[in-house]
Backbone:
């Protein structure tokens, strides 16, 4: 354990070699009453969201709204072009020839929904974010390869450096490190 | 199930043909795949291959430059055959892209684990194929610098696109397809770019991969939303990919030209697209796994499954050919009947017979387990199917346009040197992009391979 005397810290981090150990540790830490806890893994670990108590995310709602905007907007845009902005009389056929507008409406629905899903996900994740305190931990480069990390954040009302480190030690975390906040 | 061959789900067969070789850990899959990009020296073979591909692409640049100077008269197109190579190649390339989306989206929704090691480069293939495809309608307009006319924008002339035209549907379908494929590919790449950022030693590489990964740190909260977004994208890409080739088939089937005006076109175009796309995935996967020693990741199980998809879609395509015949004779429409006769006996009959041999007869060898497990045969077969599917588009475009309603409107079509130079040149561009891709980005999804390692280790417990 290093730098325990420093005051500006982001949290305390522990390392695990196996997803099952990670989930077990997260469950115990949350059972001990900590709420500002996050985990880091090189791939999505099944059951980790439940262990962290994450709620249903907003991505699907944003995606639905994007799809509706694309579809409704796309249809009425074509309607406006065909009937108002640039009406073309083709043998007296109706200007609002709506079945012919369906393919473009469909494509724009998909486009709107996909753009909303991707940019919504990035925005909710606050990405791009070039720097984050967890990158201060030298061993954190393994979070994108073969190691699993859990971090109890200093913002947690129950946070106490020594106690958190002790708890991480009890759940058999390796390389327990203080995460500096700069 | 024939005697002597164990059932396909038996542990024995699964052990013989796993989706990932034995003994891999999170660390070792990461090392092996990222090493191809980060530490492996660029081989002489890569330089030679890249140089050849890049030269062929140079030929395309010259051909397009000449086209822009002289106009589309340098091609073999004429009246009545206004479409020619440009549209044949457009449909062929777009079709090739479809397998990438099928593998990444539909097989993801169906929870097929074997897609994991092939989806990344199949998606890359989709993007590059769409880039090649998109070029053809653009240069076929004759004045590509006016192509923005196809998009709706408030112009000072007060004109707007004609939304009742399948050609405008095409613009929207293909540009949506390109955009969604790019996003799907990039979202899949983000965790792997973070891996490359963390593992690269050189400063410039760290900065470039760092910027591209956007500060991804594998946070559980991020993964939570990431998985939702990825699943949604897969769900959106699935109807999209089916719609794109349907819309392209509308370019033909909405017209009243004999041989085009049929309802079988959309499903039969989609099946044909997946057929040629899987053939192209095999054409790329077989040399890739050999050169980079990825036989443990792209196993015989993958090749076998892809061959089966080819066989199935090939049969749907064969059914489409049969229905074309059937509908022509059943409808009794004399122009349709005449067109079918022209396919069999007309000036372009050799192309039609070659198409039947390439697309229907030769692929029947894939029924055999032995053939599906012979890499050389599969590679040969993938080339044959690609040629066959190109011939199919040639037959559809050229025979119908040369033989429509009245003999005074008949014509002949033969491609010129510049047609071939442009077409072969786009292949050069495709291969150039593939070469660059395998050099600078992980050709296999590292994050998903780790997931696969986690799942297979759970299975063994």
Residues:
């Amino acid at each position: 354990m290093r730098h325990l005397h420093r005051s500006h810290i982001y949290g305390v981090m522990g390392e695990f070699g196996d997803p099952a150990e990670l989930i077990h540790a997260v469950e115990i830490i949350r059972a001990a009453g900590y709420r500002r806890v996050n985990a880091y893994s090189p791939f999505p670990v099944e059951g980790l969201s439940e262990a962290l108590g994450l709620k249903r995310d907003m991505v699907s709602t944003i995606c639905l709204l994007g799809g509706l905007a694309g579809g409704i907007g796309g249809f009425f845009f074509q309607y406006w072009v065909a009937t108002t902005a640039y009406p073309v009389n083709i043998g007296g056929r109706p200007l609002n020839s709506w079945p012919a507008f369906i393919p473009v409406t469909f494509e724009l629905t998909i486009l709107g929904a996909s753009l909303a899903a991707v940019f919504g996900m990035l925005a909710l994740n606050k990405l791009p974010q070039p720097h984050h305190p967890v990158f201060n931990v030298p061993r954190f480069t393994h979070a994108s390869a073969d190691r699993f990390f859990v971090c109890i954040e200093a913002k947690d009302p129950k946070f106490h450096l020594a106690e958190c480190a002790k708890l991480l030690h009890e759940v058999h975390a390796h390389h327990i490190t203080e995460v500096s906040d700069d | 199930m024939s005697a002597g061959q164990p059932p396909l789900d038996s542990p024995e067969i699964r052990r013989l043909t796993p989706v990932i070789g034995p003994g891999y850990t999170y660390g070792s899959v990461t090392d092996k795949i990222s090493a191809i990009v980060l530490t492996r020296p660029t081989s002489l073979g890569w330089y030679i291959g890249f140089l050849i591909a890049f030269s062929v692409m140079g030929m395309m640049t010259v051909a397009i430059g000449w086209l822009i100077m002289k106009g589309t008269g340098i091609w073999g197109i004429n009246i009545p055959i206004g479409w020619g190579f440009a549209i044949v190649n457009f449909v062929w390339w777009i079709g090739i892209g479809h397998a990438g989306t099928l593998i990444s989206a539909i097989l993801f929704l169906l929870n097929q684990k074997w897609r994991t090691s092939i989806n990344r480069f199949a998606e890359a293939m989709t993007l590059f194929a769409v880039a090649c495809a998109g070029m053809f309608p653009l240069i076929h307009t004759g004045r590509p610098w006016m192509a923005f006319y196809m998009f709706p924008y408030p112009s000072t002339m007060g004109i707007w696109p004609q939304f009742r035209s399948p050609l405008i549907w095409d613009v929207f379908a293909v540009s949506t397809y390109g955009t969604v494929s790019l996003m799907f590919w990039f979202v899949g790449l983000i965790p792997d770019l973070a891996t490359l950022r963390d593992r690269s030693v050189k400063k410039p590489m760290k900065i470039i991969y760092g910027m591209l990964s956007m500060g991804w740190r594998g946070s559980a909260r991020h993964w939570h939303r990431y998985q939702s977004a990825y699943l949604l994208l897969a769900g959106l890409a699935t109807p999209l990919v089916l719609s794109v080739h349907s819309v392209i088939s509308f370019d033909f089937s909405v017209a009243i030209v004999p041989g085009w005006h049929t309802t079988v076109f959309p499903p039969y175009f989609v099946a044909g697209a997946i057929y040629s796309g899987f053939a192209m995935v095999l054409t790329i996967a077989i040399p890739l796994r050999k050169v980079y020693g990825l036989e443990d990741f792209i196993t015989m199980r993958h090749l076998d499954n892809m061959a089966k998809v080819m066989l199935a879609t090939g049969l749907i395509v064969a059914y489409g050919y049969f229905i074309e015949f059937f509908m022509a004779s059943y409808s009794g429409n004399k122009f349709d009947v005449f067109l079918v006769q022209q396919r069999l006996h007309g000036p372009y009959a050799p192309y039609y017979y070659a198409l039947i041999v390439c697309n229907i007869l030769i692929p029947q060898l894939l029924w055999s387990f032995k053939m599906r497990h012979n890499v050389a045969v599969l590679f040969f077969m993938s080339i044959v199917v690609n040629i066959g599917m190109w011939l199919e588009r040639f037959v559809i475009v050229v025979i119908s346009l040369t033989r429509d309603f009245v003999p005074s409107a008949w014509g002949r079509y033969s491609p010129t040197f510049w047609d071939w130079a442009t077409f072969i040149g786009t292949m050069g561009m495709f291969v150039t992009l593939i070469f660059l891709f395998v050099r600078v980005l992980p050709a296999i999804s590292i994050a998903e391979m780790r997931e696969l390692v986690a799942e297979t280790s759970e299975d063994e417990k």
